[in-house]
Amino acid sequence: MQESLELETKLFEMHAALCQTLANPIRLRILNALTDDEKSVNKLVELVGVPQANISQHLAVLRDRNVVAARRDGVSIYYSIANPKIIKACNLIREVLFEQMAATGQLAKKYERLAK
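User: That's the sequence. What structure does it adopt?
Assistant: Structure tokens below.
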């Protein structure tokens, strides 16, 4: 019983740490850019629209938490999603957010403003 409780506590701590890692809009944008395939740091800078130093800092956090994997090819470093389930989890959360926005009418209001 005690071992089970300790394991559960450890899992909740790891879960919270992963959520903290993902609780950054730039990191989420990086993950979104990596959804389809690996990308170089330069390509991520272009896609995310953030300076290279900033992208590199966020990639280091994601790499330390094993969210992304890095591969060196000459002078370039390419990043990819370490586990595709991370993207599934992020997409599921986005679906919940869209549903919440739709339920409160926020989504409709946003699209009305964009259509004008």
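Helices lie at 2-22, 25-33, 41-48, 52-64, 84-104, 106-115.
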